[in-house]
Amino acid sequence: MYNNTMDLSPVVKSFVAGCCSGTCSTLLFQPLDLVKTRIQIQVPLACASGRIGMVSVANAVIRQENVLALWKGLVPSLSRCAPGVGIYFSSIHFLKSKFQSDQQRALESVVIGAVARTVAVVTLIPMTVLKTRYESGLFDYKSIPRGLAHMYQTEGLRALFSGMAPTLVRDVPFSGIYLMFYTKFKKMVNERGFDQTLHPQLYFVCGLTAGSIAAVLTQPADVIKTHMQTDSKKYQRIATTILHLYQTNGLHGFFKGIVPRTLRRTLMAAMSWTLYETVSRQVGLT
Question: How far apart are CA 46 and CA 56, in angstroms?
């Protein structure tokens, strides 16, 4: 099987490596995504402290349901993230091969990351909507096919693509910014001449730093996306969603859930890239 993998095209190898890294990071960080979603849409929770924060929401979920409830929505998350990360990395590999320069410039990194993420988002947006609804706790879909069918039957085709614009506004800049900083930080590490055995750990730190910057800058778009995907009838347009959020919670409302989201996106991106590069070496991609 290993030899068969070695014979695959570089783009397919990138897809396989991306799927592996996406699966591992999704399994590990799903609870942070669920907590973030519930904070943003303000799901009624009997938090012992009376405050709606990351720890109090997680405790309330465990107390009212169970520990495994923190992984609610895992199946649609895996169905979206595993192929999504695979598509993202294979697109990056394909696009990088089209640039002839040996040293990737900052603008090239932004464009490559943005285009790759656009392809992944548009391809898998229905699964993103379903994942968000599972995590909210407001919907009780029995399976992925039934969930998709129910959305289509009750809300129409529009529901399956609800929140695509804010998702693109969130994910495309995130990926562009992330890849630009990650490439720059990684280049700095390589130029310092560190022991190669330390490179995975150092690259992980590069990923954490790049992810933190990108996550904070794109947080408002994530809040808008969550509201549009959990109630596609109430929030049909970005402008009206922004206005409603501002009137209800002020500027603070656009940064609800920033702690769990920043932790998840930062750790997930750093781990995905570290695992991707490790698997890439194993399959002969690098």
Answer: 9
